[in-house]
Amino acid sequence: MAQIQLQPAPAGKKRYMSRPHIRIDMTPMVDLGFLLITFFIFTSSMSESKASDLYLTAGDEPTSELGASTALTVLISGGDSIYYYNGKWEDAVKNNGMHLSSFDVAKGIGNIIRNKQKALGDKSADLMLLIKPTQRSTYNNLINVLDEVLINNVKKYAIMEPTSGELSAIPTAGN
Question: InterPro entries in the record, alphabetically (predicted)?
Answer without folding.
Answer: ExbD
